Amino acid sequence: MRHFLSVNDLSVGDIRKIFSLADKARRGASIGNVEGTLALFFQKPSTRTRVSFESAMIRLGGHSIYIDASTSQFSRGESPGDTARILSLYVDFVAARLYRHVDLEEMASFSHIPVINALTDLEHPTQALADMYTMKEVKGTCEGLRIAFIGDIATNTANSLMLAATKLGSDIRLVGPKNFRPNAEYVAMARRQGSVEIYDSVAKGLDGADVIYTDTFVSMGMEKEAAKRRRLFRHYRLDSRAVGYAKKDAIVMHCLPAHRGEEITSEVLDGQRSVVWKQAGNKMLIEEALLGFLG
Ligand code: CP
Ligand code: NVA
Q1: What's the pLDDT score for residue 288?
Q2: Is the pLDDT of residue 33 over 80?
């Protein structure tokens, strides 16, 4: 029985296997016996991850139950470990979206069924798998790609993407304000696998990029800091001038939801280089594959 809490939980071979299962899911071929029920235990809002996991289970022949954590006893102090013990009695998988990564780790350590990270403050690993799968689909390979992540370079998606990118042979550049640092532990882990460079110049950071990636400036749970963050990142908006520094055939990615006019302009989001809708669609295939892999 395996959990998927971090990109670190998978080897390169595991990721290749998941990508090939996702190819099968795309073709409508069977990816093995995944039956039973998935509990989606969510403390934070979601559109894509929730609906794609639910649809993935239906496509696999299983079921899912969505639990808004604020309506569960978790919100009244039942521990993550006890919650996981109880869910293990009733369902076959848990995908949890929580604030604190340590709560997810506690759930996993008490769970008798696979626990999947559907986003925490620290990581968004299912997203990183869908992102790298999309890059492979569009660019043919992940090997040798230069990925530039611009904006909030300390966010969960950046952490997971730097681990996944370097694992699969891509270089990553983190492009953000001078006085704002990425997560040092994640940079160190990613650097053991490949190249991670940090830039405060948008022109230099995006120079020669094959992939430009951005995410919201105000992640879920940071609403109180919204005004400060919008000011801090205001020069790191992905607009057509910024895109112009990358390669001519560079693609634009965003985990979504997008805040049009804030971290990305509509012109870029809806432009010819944008693969964001393909990227979002691939989440469901990757989740089917992941459930098949863990099941
Ligand atoms: N990308 C992503 O995780 O979107 P949701 O918050 O809508 O699930
Ligand atoms: N960094 C964003 C990702 C949303 C999918 C957040 O945590 O809100």
Answers
A1: 97
A2: no
Token pair listed for 63: 């079921």
Minimal-distance CA residue to ligand 2 atom 8? 219
Pocket of ligand 1 (CB under 6 A): 46-49, 119, 127, 255-257
Measured between alpha carbons, how far is residue 239 from residues 263, 291, 295 in Å? 8, 37, 42
Q: Average pLDDT of 245-264? A: 98
Bridge partners (DSSP) of residue 67 are 41
**Tokens at residue 250, please?**
């560079």
Asked if 180 contacts 232 with a C-beta cutoff of 8 angstroms, the reply is yes
Structure tokens at 214: 């951005």
Give the ligand 2 atom nearest the CA of 48.
5
Res. 31 pLDDT band, cuts 50 70 90: confident
Fold of the domain built from segment(s) 127-280: Rossmann fold (3.40.50)
Q: Outline which parts of the chain fall under CATH 3.40.50.1370.
A: 7-124+282-294, 127-280
- Ramachandran sector of residue 56 (left: φ over 0; alpha: ψ -120 to 50; beta: rest): alpha
d(CA 125, ligand 1 centre) in Å:
12
Asked if residues 58 and 268 have their Cβ atoms less than 8 Å apart, the reply is: no
Q: Based on the number of CB atoms within 10 Å of its own CB, is 99 exposed (0-12), middle (13-18) or buried (19 or more)?
A: middle
Closest CA to 65 of 91, 47, 89, 101: 91
DSSP strand E in the chain: where?
A: 37-42, 63-68, 93-97, 115-117, 146-150, 171-175, 196-199, 211-214, 251-254
pTM of the complete model = 0.98
| pLDDT for 282 beyond 90 | yes
Cβ atoms of residues 94 and 87 within 8 Å: yes
Architecture of the 7-124+282-294 domain: 3-Layer(aba) Sandwich (3.40)
